[in-house]
Amino acid sequence: MKFLISGGGTGGHIYPALSIAHRIKKDYPDADILYIGTEKSMEADIVPKEGFQFKTIRVKGFTRKISMDTLKTAKELLLGLNDARKIIKKYSPNIVIGTGGYVCGPLVLMASLKGVPTLIHEQNALPGVTNRILSRFVDQVAGSFDESKKYFKDNSKVTITGNPIRESILEIDKKEAYKKLKVDPNKKLVLVFGGSGGQQSLNDAMIETIKNHINNKLIQILHVTGKRHYDKFMNNLKKNDIDISSNNNIIIVPYLFQMPEAESISDLIITSGGAISIAEITAIGIPSIIVPKAYTTDNHQEFNARALEKSGASKMILEKDLNGQKLSDMIDSLLNDHNKLGSMARNSKKIGKTDAVDKIMSIVDNMIK
């Protein structure tokens, strides 16, 4: 059985694709899986390390404004379609699966035109442009939010599966997690991270938030700045005369490899509106404050955050409204309201989906049979 999988540009597209790929390998041990991406991309670095074959095609994302670069992109798209045609002809896949990002466009479209069964997975409440276009051609669409259905022309193709998550997050030994992260189990933990790369606006707001909560005997804060923001953040603490060297409740790191452990023992999570982060938070039922990044394509993170807030699982603060005092006050308000926090946790768990890969594989199984 041969599977072509594609998804690229950001971790939000790549990691769902890899979750599906690993599950295919588990269900079909003899499966031949080929991952298609672009050169000098995140997927070019990540996918081979996961043990999968990797090939590239030539394609670029379209800019929103018409310019000379638009003509170059159109040329690359034509080259990408030809690359995809050659790969499909040589590889003869039984199914092609795309998880978003412009790299999926040529491959999934060409597969559909060639009569190869095609499936796309959409991570966000507001589908990306590529998936909205591809949905008109593919056989099946797997979505993650009920709100996304209205953006696809043919609802009969859409199955709400949720986002694939790291299985490890559901198997955490919490006692070991507290020890590993050096966190006090008797204090409430607030985990803060602005996606895998960090978030400048959230980092700025955390300066005052940390100042207001340093040496607080009831809560502890684990703040992940993002690698490229760490030095600036630490310098800003010094400029604001905030000395965390002798505190007993503030932990600041540039990156956190033990994110599943940290998420599982948190009482409140503050993050941006990335679809995979939201999927993990809701899978384990953690209340959250979402600060969607305003510069994301089509502002899709705000749609994700609003979907979560509408369900009563989260509070949202837009970047334009964010400041340290507002964030600090919201943290205190939630942590001091046991009933509210409990209600948010239950609502988070209620909308969480832990069987997304099972549902996606059910679609795949039916398609290839």
Q: How would you describe what is shown here?
A:
The protein is of the alpha/beta class. The chain folds into two domains: 2-165 and 354-368, Glycogen Phosphorylase B (Rossmann fold, 3-Layer(aba) Sandwich), CATH 3.40.50; 168-351, Glycogen Phosphorylase B (Rossmann fold, 3-Layer(aba) Sandwich), CATH 3.40.50.2000. It has helices at 11-27, 42-49, 68-91, 104-113, 129-134, 174-181, 200-213, 230-239, 259-264, 275-284, 300-310, 324-335, 338-351, 356-368, and strands at 2-6, 32-37, 53-56, 95-98, 118-121, 140-143, 158-160, 188-193, 219-224, 250-253, 268-271, 288-290, 314-316. Strands 3-2-1-4-5-6-7 form a seven-stranded parallel beta sheet, sandwiched between helices. It starts with a strand and ends with a helix. The model has no long low-confidence stretch (mean pLDDT 92).
Low-confidence segments, given as residue ranges, are none
Q: What is the total number of structural domains?
A: 2
How many strands appear in the DSSP assignment?
Answer: 13
Give the termini separation. Answer: 11 Å
Number of helices: 14
What do we call the CATH topology of the largest domain?
Answer: Rossmann fold
Largest sheet: 7 strands, parallel
- Let me know the average pLDDT: 92
